[in-house]
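ingest -> validate -> predict -> emit
validate: passed (alphabet ok, no gaps, 104 aa)
predict: started
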Amino acid sequence: MLIRVANHRKRHAEAFREFPGLHLYRDFSVERMSPLGFLSPTMALKGIGAMAQGHTMGLPEGDVSQLPGVVIIASDGRIIYRYDGRDPSDHPSPAAIVEALQRQ
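emit:
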């Protein structure tokens, strides 16, 4: 079973069981971005790059300072993959996630 944990209510992937809430972020010690992190030159450049590609920012949902993370737990309880985002736009590639699942 695949479960997507999100810190907002919006559904992005129908293939996942949605599990909203922040407690799992805390349980896995996934960090939050500092207020100054939003003002960094790197974040500004990433925002400009996203807008240049036609992406726009809607109204914030959930905890906007919560950094992304991916944890894959095997059926026996072992963590077989973990990725902690360095900023809100830092996500692993889908190929990396699929590869980790295929190794099982």
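The two ends are 14 Å apart (CA to CA).
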